[in-house]
Design goal:
mainly alpha, single chain, about 85% helix, 3 helices
Length: about 100
């Protein structure tokens, strides 16, 4: 693998992450938080399978892009899913919801 190919394979993860971050709200609006999390899990499995069995650079690029898309999509979905599941009465004497969410 040449240096240019290696750089492209490495950089495609960032591109997939950008796509996943920007499309997370669309998936959550269409299928809900749980559905978007399931979509992310499916995309992770498909991306990992593609990377594992890839015999060409193109398949490796697609697998890495799918894996990055799903990781960044899951990071957005899970935070909102946890935030909406925390108790609302945690505001006395201190508002501790932010501490739970930021972990």
């Amino acid at each position: 693998m040449s240096d240019t190919t290696f750089s492209v394979v490495t950089a495609i993860y960032t591109v997939g992450g950008l796509i996943g971050s920007m499309s997370a709200n669309i998936a959550m609006d269409r299928w809900g938080r749980r559905g978007a999390s399931r979509l992310s899990a499916l995309m992770t499995a498909v991306g990992a399978l593609l990377m594992a069995v890839s015999s060409s650079v193109k398949a490796l690029l697609v697998g890495r892009c799918l894996a990055a898309d799903s990781v960044f999509k899951a990071s957005k979905c899970v935070m909102i899913y946890i935030e909406q599941g925390t108790c609302r009465h945690w505001s006395w004497p201190w508002n501790l919801r932010w501490a739970y969410i930021s972990l």
